[in-house]
């Protein structure tokens, strides 16, 4: 039994597992109780009620939980209630404080031994802090001194490209816009973001095929769909309000197919939180057909489906394919069908692990549907062929003409609540030339043209000492990124690491020679500037831009807003900037005027965003217009099934979220919908696979990942027999990130393949 000592990963210590039966349905009274417990214990009852009253209300703040849209009308108390949204706001409204005294009491080395749960529960950071070179404890520093120090360090770099500016997806449009402007005036496009690890494969696949990197559907389309396919997504935990939309699809006679290696509880059956009378009942069955696919078998499945569709179309022309749409709107059908013919069902089927009969049921539903929506998330994007997955989804929709009309289209369900808006605002390492030109014209400077580093490239550059300063606008870089020990070395190589954060996290503890924490306001808090209290704006997963106004008292009087922090930084760093940074933050309307002047779709921004529910950004695919693609039409593409082959005793591992976490923020230690309580170091395995390895339930194991001859080990996980296909396993992120090799990533999008890790399992 060996155990490597390390501080960059969560501790290996087990916390005392309990297992219970998996519930039959999601939400219901238990979910409401769980949420209220979190809110009241973190924030107290009075503040807790105020929080819930303002969550997702037109005049309140946008839920920081996920990017699922709110209905444009009805927004009663608890109307858009969701357990995990409530937990997200509770986490921000916590009474606990991480003060200078807290930092004086706990050394960095001590805090690094805590679990992510303990680190997070420490609370909100109250003052700007600095960890000096060779220091053991963070110490208080004034805002101006902090800005001056960072500015000096930035200006001492040999080139601006030695600095990296990361963004997580909670940052508002206003903050993101100012931030990218500052970074580009400083002289680099090194703007990696959480999207690089998330929906980058969707953006890449969709831009190429339909000419826009965002989804095409609106919330209302769910009312009209004949069929919704949910593939590689667990909405019951990660987008609970989506279950309401799926419920509406069913109510209106639509069908639902779920494609997932796990029978995720929320997708199967759901009890509406709004209807307490039904809390005790059986709930509503959501999924009509569940395809329990093997990990990374999706391209193979979609190809089989499309081959069977083609067979039927050949027998009965014009009954399956939308030939008029294909002729008028698309490009490449011949090549695509020819390529499809080169694959045989016999060869594809084993990759899916499914009986052909089940797939035929799906084909039957697809053939008879005219309006199809396909929803997906990380189960498709975080694979070596993640972009192929997304493009294959588009192929299916194009065959059916199921895009650009009501009740049909693409629905990549975004994660962070403003990750889509941040991209719209220019947080991108590969900016479009037209965007840079608009910035140059408006602000009278010369913008860098060379593409910057994405997340994986940034880590590699820091590891190889080609980059020396890391700046994080939100997020938790060390715990969110792959290959934990390699990334830790990268951050430790830096001369300076800086984090703009609300709460303490592990990235403050795995640091450069000098480290700073700049504490900011959370979304639920009042943002007071010279002209009065400000609101910010965000864009949800369906391209609606709307306002978000915090109204709770800030966690500390020393906090600054993200826009104000950027302005402070820019003023201290840039010598020749013609931007009036301080004026811009005196009234955020002025920032929005600049956005309007440089980004298409924001005409009359300040006026329209004050309308109830906000406004939709232009979306060519939604309007059945594919002119922005290279061919001017929607493109069929040729895609590759998985090329991973497992050796004896090797397994595929996906790293997924529990019901009690928000990415790297651990709300609690339970995964109620999977029947696991009080433990995160678990590996879900097929019972027969366990038998072959001579493993019994809850046996402790070590996990080794295998990649191009390299091995990485994660110690001390408990094996859980679970309803998962053979040779497939699941662990939780971030505990298993140490196993994800930095070089194992999706073609084109460069997204870490954190759902397709090859592992072996050994009893301890
Ligand atoms: N409460 C809560 N809400 C969140 C988050 C959170 O952590 N907590 N995170 C937010 C963020 S940033 C994001 S990106 C989203 C993430 O939302 P999801 O993508 O739903 O999150 P994951 O837990 O990664 O789940 C991936 C799902 O895909 C399945 N899957 C894995 N591999 C495959 C595969 O090869 N094929 C198929 N068909 N399925 C597969 C898994 O079984 C799982 O059900 O949620 C957002 N919302
Ligand atoms: N193995 C594996 N790795 C993954 C994934 C996976 O499925 N498997 N998923 C990937 C995905 S989809 C994503 S999106 C990334 C997430 O990566 P990140 O976005 O970097 O991580 P989060 O855990 O969401 O960041 C949480 C931190 O953000 C800070 N924060 C919270 N609210 C605010 C705010 O309003 N302002 C500021 N400035 N800071 C704030 C808090 O300090 C908190 O600790 O992780 C990726 N990593
Ligand atoms: Mo994400």
Walk me through the topology:
Layout: E1 18-19, E2 26-27, H1 28-43, H2 45-54, H3 83-92, E3 97-98, H4 100-105, H5 108-111, H6 116-121, E4 124-125, E5 129-131, E6 139-140, H7 143-156, E7 163-167, H8 173-186, H9 200-210, H10 221-224, E8 227-231, H11 235-238, H12 242-251, E9 255-259, H13 265-268, E10 269-271, E11 284-285, E12 289-291, H14 298-315, H15 323-329, E13 330-331, H16 333-341, H17 345-352, H18 356-367, E14 372-376, H19 378-381, H20 386-399, E15 409-412, H21 419-424, H22 433-443, H23 455-463, E16 469-473, H24 477-480, H25 484-492, E17 496-501, E18 514-519, E19 527-529, E20 532-534, E21 536-539, E22 544-548, H26 562-573, H27 581-586, H28 588-598, H29 605-608, E23 615-616, E24 634-635, E25 651-656, E26 661-662, E27 665-666, E28 676-677, E29 682-685, H30 687-692, E30 700-707, E31 710-721, E32 728-732, E33 757-763
Parallel strand pairs: 2-10, 3-4, 7-16, 8-9, 8-14, 9-12, 13-24, 14-15, 16-17, 17-18, 25-32, 29-31
Antiparallel strand pairs: 1-28, 5-6, 5-18, 10-11, 19-20, 21-22, 22-23, 25-33, 26-27, 29-32, 30-31, 30-33
Bound molecules: ligand MGD (2 copies) and molybdenum atom.
Task: Please provide a written account of the structure.
By secondary structure, the protein is of the alpha/beta class. Among the domains are: 12-16 and 644-763, Beta Barrel (Barwin-like endoglucanases); 200-412, Dimethylsulfoxide Reductase, domain 2 (3-Layer(aba) Sandwich). 34% of the residues lie in helices and 17% in strands. The chain has a six-stranded mixed beta sheet with strand order 6-5-18-17-16-7, sandwiched between helices. Strand 26 and strand 27 form a beta hairpin. Helix 8 (173-186) packs parallel to helix 26, helix 9 packs parallel to helix 20 (386-399) and helix 14 (298-315) packs parallel to helix 20. The protein is globular, with a radius of gyration of 25 Å. 58% of the residues are buried. The chain binds ligand MGD (2 copies) and molybdenum atom. One ligand MGD is lined by residues 168-170, 194, 197-198, 378, 382, 415-416, 473-477, 480, 500-503, 505, 520, 522-523, 562, 655, 663-665, 733, 737, 740, 754.
């Amino acid at each position: 039994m060996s155990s490597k000592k390390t501080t960059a990963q969560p501790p290996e210590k087990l916390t005392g597992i309990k297992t219970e039966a998996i519930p039959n349905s999601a939400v219901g009274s238990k979910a409401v109780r769980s949420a209220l417990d979190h809110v009241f214990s973190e924030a107290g009852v009075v503040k807790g009620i105020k929080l819930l009253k303002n969550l997702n209300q037109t005049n309140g703040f946008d839920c920081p939980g996920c990017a699922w849209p709110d209905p444009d009308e009805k927004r009663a108390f608890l109307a858009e209630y969701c357990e995990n949204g409530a937990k997200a706001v509770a986490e921000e409204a916590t009474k606990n404080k991480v003060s200078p005294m807290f930092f004086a009491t706990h050394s960095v080395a001590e805090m690094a031994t805590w679990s992510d749960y303990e680190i997070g529960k420490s609370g909100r950071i109250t003052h700007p802090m600095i960890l000096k070179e060779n220091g053991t404890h963070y110490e208080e520093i004034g805002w101006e001194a902090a800005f001056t120090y960072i500015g000096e360090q930035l200006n001492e770099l040999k080139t601006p490209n030695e600095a990296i500016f990361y963004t997580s997806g909670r940052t508002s449009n206003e903050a993101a816009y100012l931030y990218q402007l500052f970074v580009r005036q400083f002289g680099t496009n090194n703007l990696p973001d959480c999207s690089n690890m998330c929906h980058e494969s969707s953006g890449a696949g969709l831009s190429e095929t339909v000419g826009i990197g965002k989804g095409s559907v609106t919330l209302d389309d769910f009312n009209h769909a004949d069929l919704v396919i949910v593939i590689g997504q667990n909405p019951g935990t990660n987008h609970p309000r989506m279950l309401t939309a799926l419920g509406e699809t069913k109510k209106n006679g639509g069908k639902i197919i779920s494609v997932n290696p796990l029978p995720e509880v929320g997708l199967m059956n759901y009890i509406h939180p709004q209807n307490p009378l039904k809390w005790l009942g059986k709930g509503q069955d959501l999924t009509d057909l569940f395809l329990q696919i093997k990990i990374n078998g999706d391209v193979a499945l979609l190809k089989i489906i499309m081959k069977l569709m083609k067979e039927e179309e050949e027998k009965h022309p014009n009954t399956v394919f939308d030939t008029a749409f294909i002729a008028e709107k698309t490009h490449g059908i011949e090549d695509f069908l020819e390529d499809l013919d080169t694959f045989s069902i016999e060869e594809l089927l084993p990759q899916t692990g499914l009986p052909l009969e089940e797939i035929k049921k799906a084909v039957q539903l697809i053939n008879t549907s005219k309006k199809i929506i396909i929803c997906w998330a990380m189960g498709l994007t975080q694979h070596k062929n993640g972009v192929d997955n997304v493009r294959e989804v588009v192929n299916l929709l194009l065959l059916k003409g199921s895009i650009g009309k009501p009740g049909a289209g693409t629905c990549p369900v975004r994660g962070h609540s403003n990750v889509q808006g941040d991209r719209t605002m220019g947080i991108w390492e590969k900016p479009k030339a037209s965007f840079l030109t608009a910035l140059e014209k408006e602000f009278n400077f010369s913008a860098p043209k060379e593409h910057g580093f994405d997340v994986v490239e940034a880590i590699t550059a820091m590891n190889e000492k080609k980059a020396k300063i890391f700046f994080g606008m939100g997020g938790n870089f060390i715990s969110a990124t792959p290959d934990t020990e390699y990334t830790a070395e990268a951050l430790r190589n830096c001369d300076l690491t800086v984090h703009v954060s609300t709460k303490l996290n592990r990235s403050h503890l795995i640091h450069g020679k000098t480290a700073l924490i700049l504490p900011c306001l959370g979304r639920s808090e009042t943002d007071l500037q010279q002209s009065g209290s400000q609101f910010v704006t965000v864009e949800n997963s369906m391209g609606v831009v709307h306002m978000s106004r915090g109204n709770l008292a800030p966690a500390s009087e020393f906090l600054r807003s993200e826009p104000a922090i950027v302005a402070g930084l820019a003023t201290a760093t840039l010598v020749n900037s013609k931007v009036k940074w301080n004026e811009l933050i005196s009234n955020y309307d002025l920032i929005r005027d600049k956005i309007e002047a440089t980004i298409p779709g924001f005409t009359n921004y300040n006026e329209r965003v004050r309308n109830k529910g906000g406004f939709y950004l232009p979306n060519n695919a939604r309007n059945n217009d594919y002119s922005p693609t290279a061919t001017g039409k929607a493109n069929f593409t040729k895609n590759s099934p998985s090329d991973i082959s497992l050796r004896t005793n090797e397994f595929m591992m996906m790293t997924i979220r529990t019901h009690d976490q928000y990415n790297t923020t651990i709300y609690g230690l339970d995964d109620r919908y999977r029947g696991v309580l009080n433990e995160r170091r678990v590996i879900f395995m097929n019972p027969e696979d366990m038998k072959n390895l001579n493993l019994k339930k809850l046996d402790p194991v070590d996990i080794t990942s295998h990649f191009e001859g390299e091995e990485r080990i994660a110690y001390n996980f408990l094996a859980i027999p679970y309803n998962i296909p053979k040779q497939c396993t699941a662990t939780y992120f971030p505990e298993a990130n140490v196993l994800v090799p930095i070089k194992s990533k999706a073609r084109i999008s460069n997204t870490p393949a954190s759902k397709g890790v090859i592992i072996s399992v050994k009893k301890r």
